[in-house]
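User: quick one, sequence for these tokens?
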């Protein structure tokens, strides 16, 4: 009986990394499912972050994903063109997460 419990415990430990990795969401799915994105960015950049005609550009475009993290952080914080600034509206951690998720779009 004790041997069976040990075997089950070892088996469960071996499967744990598989279960954890299976739960990791897609990078782009993280952006479009991020509540901060949905509330503040989606109306201009679209539900799938692919941009909207006469509104915000695609966040998955080569130009956007090639921008440095500092450039993206600056644009989100201080605005650019018709884009409003979000400094003071979003926490620095929220902006950092958006930047990381946008950068991840270019790695696909």
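Assistant:
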């Amino acid at each position: 009986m004790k041997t069976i419990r040990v075997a089950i415990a070892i088996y469960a430990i071996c499967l744990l990394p598989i279960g954890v990795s299976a739960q990791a969401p897609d990078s782009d799915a993280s952006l479009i499912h991020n509540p901060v994105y949905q509330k503040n960015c989606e109306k201009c950049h679209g539900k799938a972050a692919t941009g909207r005609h006469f509104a915000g550009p695609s966040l998955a475009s080569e130009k956007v994903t090639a921008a440095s993290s500092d450039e993206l952080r600056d644009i989100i914080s201080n605005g650019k063109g018709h884009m409003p600034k979000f400094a003071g509206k979003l926490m620095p951690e929220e902006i950092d997460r958006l930047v990381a998720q946008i950068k991840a779009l270019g790695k696909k």
